[in-house]
Amino acid sequence: MSRRLILALCTSLPIACAADADADTAGSGETDTEDGGGSTGAAFDEDATIARALAYTTTLTQVNAESRPSQHGLASTVNVWADDGALAAYLALDPAAPGAAPTWSPDALLVKEHLDGGGVPTGLTVMAQGDPDATSDGWWWARLDVDGTVHETGQVGFCISCHTPVEASGWAFGVPLDNRR
Asked: I need a surface site. Which of 45, 78, 115, 118 has the fewest CB within 10 A?
């Protein structure tokens, strides 16, 4: 099945995505978590991670109460979403008082939703834990359109350079305490 078709199906039918991911990894040496949430083995399943990211509105928790100005030119404002494996660690971050890195789950997923001037989602930037080839403490990065178009994945330079200043805090910035849901 083509990557684009899999991604299209995953955004509309998350159950089909989990089943397809299981079929793709059968016999590959990968060990998926019980809920199909990602790989806990040596291999990193980029397609499954992209599918999880694209299903963010139904499977992740929005962290911020109000959209915030975007720090780069990809959007007017952004919302931040975290999966169950990342939520506690992400909420432990206080951007006003950076501290030690929280403990991330092996398949933690963070999604930054890019909004245009009218508040319509246009794209996503994604951080996911579990990439054994990552030079950024296991973080894998991606830039996607909301329709599933993939622009960049892996060790994306502009993502890493932006997040390097918070490497000691687990590579994530956090959401200000006064803007949390």
From this structure: 118
Calpha distance 148→142 (Å, rounded): 11
Tell me which amino acid residue 43 is: A
Contacts 24+ apart (CB under 8 A), 155-159: 158/72, 159/125, 159/127
Chain-wide mean pLDDT for the chain?
A: 81
Q: What's the pTM? A: 0.77
| Residue closest to 51 by CA, chosen among 16, 10, 92 | 10
pLDDT digits (tens, 9 = 90+) for 123-135: 999 999 999 989 9
pLDDT in tens, 67-104: 999 887 889 999 999 999 999 999 999 999 988 899 99
Residue linked to tokens 């991670």: 49
Residue-range definition of the domain harbouring residue 168: 3-179
105 and 89 Cβ atoms separated by less than 8 Å: yes
> Side chain identity at 37, as an amino acid letter?
G
How many separate domains does the chain show? 1
Which residues, at least 6 apart from 166, have a Cβ–Cβ distance to it below 8 Å?
A: 98, 172, 173
Residues 71 and 162 sit within 8 Å (Cβ to Cβ): yes
On whether the CB atoms of residues 24 and 44 are closer than 8 A, the answer is no
From the number of C-beta atoms within 10 Å of its C-beta (0-12, 13-18, 19+), residue 76 rates as: middle
